Amino acid sequence: MIVDALDQAWRGWAALGRVLAGEQWQRPTRLPDWTVRDVYAHHCDFPAGTAAGLEAPEPTAPMSHATAAELLAFMQRPGGIADQTREEVRTTAIQRAGAGELVEQFTDLAPKVIAALRETDLDRKVDYMGFAVVSAEEALRIFLMEAVVHYFDIATALDLPVPGPMAGAPLRETVRLLTETADPVALVDAATGRGTPPVFPVLR
């Protein structure tokens, strides 16, 4: 179940935040100009964002994308949402509060959000950042992927083992989503050695 996988991933983020100290927060990551703190601050928005989505009225508009993969592909188009918001996302992350407040998003808020999700109909529609409408379950698939990818960003910067706490369901679900986002014919040809079509990256 997607909620179980997200719970596991966010617990991993909570555990990571508890042990980060001093200069570790300022280590550069493989994301150009992003430190460990920048990445952690960026991802700490997800529990609060999820809570806000649950509390908001269900949108009356029809679903704009049937699956998380469709939405990701839409966002990643050249000149699309991902390109337009990349610098804004980074700037917002840099302006976040102190480390303690960042970590509390996973140690204190995330468990409450997970408990609420367990009582939620995941087929309900939710607004996705003001530009899309998807089911709650498909939105959570993207949030889980973000948790795994950005955990790896930080773990790599700190020489921590990967997949670490993302092993099992979080990693499997992330691989599944990224595979669904890739061009299926190109993926089959590349995976079976029938050619070298440009399959990756599917996210930038």
Order of helices and strands: HHHHHHEEHHH
Strand content: under 5%
> Which spans have pLDDT < 50 for at least 5 consecutive residues?
none
**Tally of DSSP helical segments:** 9
Distance between the termini: 27 Å
CATH superfamily: dinb family like domain
Beta strand count:
2
Strand adjacency order, main sheet: 1-2
Pairing-aware structural class of the strands and helices?
A: mainly alpha
CATH class: Mainly Alpha
CATH architecture: Up-down Bundle
Tertiary shape? globular
- Tell me the number of structural domains: 1
Protein name: TIGR03083 family protein
Pfam family, one: MDMPI_N
Domain Mycothiol-dependent maleylpyruvate isomerase metal-binding: 6-155
GO molecular function: metal ion binding
Account of the 3D structure:
There is one protein chain. This protein is mainly alpha-helical and 204 residues long. Helix content is 59%, strand content 4%. Strand 1 (125-128) and strand 2 (132-135) form a beta hairpin. The mean pLDDT is 92. The chain has a single domain, classed as dinb family like domain (Four Helix Bundle (Hemerythrin (Met), subunit A)), CATH 1.20.120.450.
